[in-house]
Design goal:
By secondary structure, this protein is α+β, with helices and mostly antiparallel strands. It has one helix and two strands.
């Protein structure tokens, strides 16, 4: 897919790439916590794997 940049004076074309990354992670949630999407997201965020 190609897209023209918002600054039309440059007339620059940027090629956009789609990347799919599959990641399998085993996490543990404390027994006193409910298994919710929020708790899962927080646990994964705490792994600090974003960078």
């Amino acid at each position: 897919m190609k897209e023209i940049t918002s600054d039309l004076s440059k007339k620059e074309v940027i090629t956009l790439h789609e990347i799919e990354v599959s990641l399998q992670v085993k996490i543990w949630i404390q027994e006193d916590k409910k298994v919710t999407v929020g708790n899962i997201a927080t646990t994964i965020r705490n792994l600090k794997i974003e960078p």
